Amino acid sequence: MASCWPDAPISTLLYDEEATGGRFSGHQIHTSYLQRLGVRQHGFRRLMPFYPRAVEKLHVPDAEVVVSSSSAFAHGLQPPGDAAHICYCHSPFRYVWHERQRAIDEMPGWAGGWGERLLDRVRDWDRHASARVTHYISNSELTRQRVGEFYGRDSSVIHPPVAVDRFTPSTDHDDYFLVVCELVRHKNVYVALAAAEQAGVPIKVVGTGPDEYWLRRDYPNAEFLGRVSDEELARVYERARAFVMPAIEEFGIVAAEAHAAGRPVLAAGAGGALEIVREGQTGVFAEPHNVDAFAEAMREVDWDAFDPHVIRARAEDFSVPTFQLRLREEIDRVMGDNVAPLPGTAEPLAAQAVGSSSSFPDVRRSASAR
């Protein structure tokens, strides 16, 4: 998103240049007062109670249009003056809405009723914050449904960008199945690992997170690779027999990445997977949360029958240029202006961005570009 407007300043709750690989170092970065706490990428979740106020106090330079990228709090920013606010929504904050009970179950015992009351207050804030957004763009039909249900707002759908050029499809592969995700409860990694154990097939896991300890303990036959480089990740994708996505995702970029590497996907048959995987052509679906169904698919499906080039062609529908074009066209539609050309085609468009506490920064178009 930020590369659509390379001169744009970026406003974000927290910024960790190392964690983002320095990819935003060419932008002017504005952070919230929480930045002074020195919290890094691994510790940002602990600040959850403080994000609503921090995002409302976040400095957002003068602009005509603010485009936020929000998986929780960024949509609650206060745009300057009468600026329009277009929010690209990855999901309404899951832990106060559709996964509230999971959040309660994961709270330490001492939190008790205090934790539930905190979630209630954040949910009330979240609903009121949604009313300040000019227009929502959802990353999938599932997110669009939730934006309507939780916020009472309609939204358009633009699928998120996938760096398909990082991957090269191959007809040659190893025998392992692959999971790539943060190791947190809602990713349902245990379903894939239990299924692989039941089917008697090897499985590898890329990622780390709070659930890593007990996943390693309960599934010792799985191979945990931790975090890997971009180059190693591409190789692990390309050598997999098939990719497994056991969670019901809002979209599921990892499934599209697997397709970019020419690999078929075994996915829970709900949510964003239905917008990526074409059953029988690029992968298969299994009943969500059903270990037996996933195990049967791992064991019985002829994974070699899928054509890597057909799979790769599907991934091209989610390329970065496609996303950028659709995003700019949608901003143009909402604002009733002409879309400014992408960098390299004419004068670059000045812009500003606002990031979520847990996602990459967002974009904006400033008055100076008009």
From TrEMBL:
InterPro entries: Glyco_trans_1, Glyco_trans_4-like_N, Glycosyltransferase_grp1
Annotated EC: 2.4.-.-
The keyword rRNA-binding belongs to this UniProt entry's keyword annotation: no
Superkingdom, taxonomy of origin: Bacteria
Name of a matching Pfam family: Glyco_transf_4
GO molecular function, one term: glycosyltransferase activity
Domain Glycosyltransferase subfamily 4-like N-terminal, first and last residues per copy: 40-166
UniProt KW keywords: Glycosyltransferase, Transferase
Occurrences of domain Glycosyl transferase family (ranges): 171-301
The protein's name: Glycosyltransferase
